[in-house]
Amino acid sequence: MPIRFLSLLFALLACAAPVSLSGCKSLPPSKPASEWTPQEARGAAIFQQSCAKCHHPTSTHGLHGPGLQAITKITAMPSGAPPTDERLTAVILHGHGTMPGTALDDQQLQDLLAYLHSL
Fold first, then answer.
1. CA distance linking residue 106 with residue 112, whole number of Å
2. Domain range list for the chain
3. What sign does the dihedral 119-114-23-11 (CA atoms) show?
4. According to the 3-state scheme, what is the secondary structure of 18-84?
5. Under 8 Å between Cβ of 110 and 61
6. How many angstroms separate the CA atoms of 73 and 84, rounded?
7. Bridge partners of 99?
8. Domain 38-119: which topology?
9. What's phi and psi for 106, nearest 5 deg?
10. pTM
11. Least confident of 1-15, 53-67, 75-89, 93-107
12. pLDDT, position 25
């Protein structure tokens, strides 16, 4: 019994050590829907229609594409590029890798970017 406990403890420590040594920090929470501006709410609707089938908005776990929690608050997107509005716009409109581009007019794009900033 003690050997089993020590083996389990060692396995847990071995798994936890890389996380603690990497300086992993939690991401800020997404803005609650009850606090969205009208523009963010319109962006959320666009996200649900055009993006949610491949991206989780409030998680970093991927679906068919990466999760987008805090996408505008991190130093680099999964591609390694900084998450500037210009770069996000290029990826949204023209796609990247296996992600297809999405046809949005200027207002829809601005609404979607506002929503992404709320994540």
1. 10
2. 38-119
3. positive
4. HHHHCCCCCCCCCCCHHHCCHHHHHHHHHHHHHCCCCCCCCCCCCCCCCCCCCCCCCCCCCCCCCCC
5. no
6. 10
7. 96
8. Cytochrome Bc1 Complex; Chain D, domain 2 (1.10.760)
9. -60, -40
10. 0.76
11. 1-15
12. 56
